[in-house]
Amino acid sequence: MDKSPDAFRTISEVAELLDLPQHVLRFWETRFTQIKPMKRGGGRRYYRPQDVDLIKGIRHMLYDQGYTIKGVQKLLRDNGNQFLVAIGNGDLAAVEVIAQRKQAALEAEEQQSAARPRNDDEMLVGQPKAKPGRRFFGLGKGEDEGSASGEEGRLSRDNRALLQEALFDLLECKRLLDQVR
After folding, report:
1. Which site in 99, 119, 158, 168 is 20 to 30 Å from 5, CA atoms measured?
2. Is the whole model's pTM more than 0.70, yes or no?
3. Which residues in 73-90 are b (16+ Cβ under 10 Å) and which e?
4. Which residues fall in a coiled-coil region (predicted)?
5. Cα three-residue angle 150-155-157, rounded to 5 degrees
């Protein structure tokens, strides 16, 4: 006998429905605080339909789109549960609406941040703020050297930011390789 769509599901039903091992579902509960199955006597888990939809979205992003757990956590933090639920259900219209809301919020934040002074530390995270100088790549002294102090052997702030980004990328690659081993 089939259950209604609003019925709670056991961990074995969810695992079978999403083609996942049960231990993966238990692990994801530790990594994604948004997954909160109801636990009954003896530790039995019962997943609400919203939990199943969220897990479906998480599974899609991890397995089909190639996101890392940290990447999916960031998606959840930035866009909320409904974004991943919509992705898991294949509801592209809902994904688009959520993305438009997010874009509008980012534009409003940019307008507010344009009014406040910039902090040098903000340059170390995010997209490159300037093209790297010739000296950054070992091509000699370039005309676009941006060092305010003029000291020999020091990187400009822009080149330091680019080097910091490269370091973060390399560390992420190392972490991924360590996971595979």
Report:
1. 99
2. no
3. bebbeebebbbbbbbbee
4. none
5. 95
Q: What tens digit of pLDDT does each residue of 104-160 get?
A: 877 887 777 766 655 555 544 555 555 555 555 555 554 444 444 455 567 777 777
- Please report, as a single letter, which amino acid is at residue 137: F
Burial 29-48, CB ≥16 within 10 A → b, else e? beebebbebeeeeeeebbbb
What stretch of H or E contains 109? helix 92-115
Q: Is 167 exposed, middle or buried (0-12, 13-18, 19+ CB in 10 A)?
A: exposed
Hey, which residues does 38 pair with through a beta bridge? 46
Q: What are the strands of the beta sheet with 9-10, ordered from one edge?
A: 9-10, 45-47, 38-39
Which residue ranges make up each domain of the chain?
Answer: 1-94, 116-181
